[in-house]
Amino acid sequence: MDVYSLPNVTEPHPPTALALQRVTPVLSYVAVFFSLTSFLWWCIQDYRFFKSLGVGGPSHDIFGWFKVHILVRPFTLAVRDTIWTGDYPDHGAHKDIMALPDRRGERPVILGIAPQRQFSQCPGQEMNSRVLALFSSFVHNNPNLLQQRLSVVEKHHSALFVHPGILAKPDNLPEIATIANGEMGHIHGDTSLHLYFSPADAKILIERGWAQRHRSARTQPWWFGGLKNMWGIGDTFLIVYAPRDQHELDVLCVLIKASIMFMTGEQEVVKS
Q1: What percent of the chain has pLDDT over 70?
Q2: Where are the domains of the chain?
Q3: Measured between alpha carbons, how far is residue 176 from residues 88, 108, 202, 260 in Å?
Q4: Which residues form the signal peptide (predicted)?
Q5: Does residue 143 have a cis peptide bond before it, meaning omega lies within 30 degrees of 0?
Q6: Bridge-partner residues for 152, per DSSP?
């Protein structure tokens, strides 16, 4: 045979190369399987956590969970950033807010996005009733400024609203008063509250330990100018910790008054 016309013979692969060719696809399938299984397990546990927060805001089912924890969560504040105040102004707080002392002890445990709830340092039902009485007293003493009815945001708890007569003349009101349909805040079953404050008041209240941000209380959008205000929630929407005694209930009275003044365009407010 002519040496220049040798048959085309393929050099055999080393045994290790052949083994890798067979194993690699299997490993890929295994990796995908474990990734999907881990994600499914996380979804189940996260859904159980969502259900444990109770009713409020989004529907209390898998659709509410998917909306909040899958679609919205990437745009919300990280937990550590709920006590950050670097984007709030240093001046302009109400005098009564500036005079507040630091809250005693550690912050309570706050969990969730929507709903957002307090899981430690919770008072009994009697304190919840006293806070609701405080709501009613403010409305009774300021009938031209306030109304009390079911929360539009939470849908299951009592809330304070800017009176429609004030809301009809929005020129002197903060923008969020109109966006929030006049709702300035509401109470939860654990006796914590969500309230709006002026940016300067919000800074002091967070730094002195009385409150922290809602996870959607962003002053700047995220992801290339994406979402900022979730569900019409403004950047000074704070969760105020439940009062534990009469002293803290008195502080809450100061906080509610400051919230009313901000949301009604600095109207004079008669304390309860």
Answers
A1: 86
A2: 16-70, 78-264
A3: 16, 27, 14, 13
A4: none
A5: no
A6: none
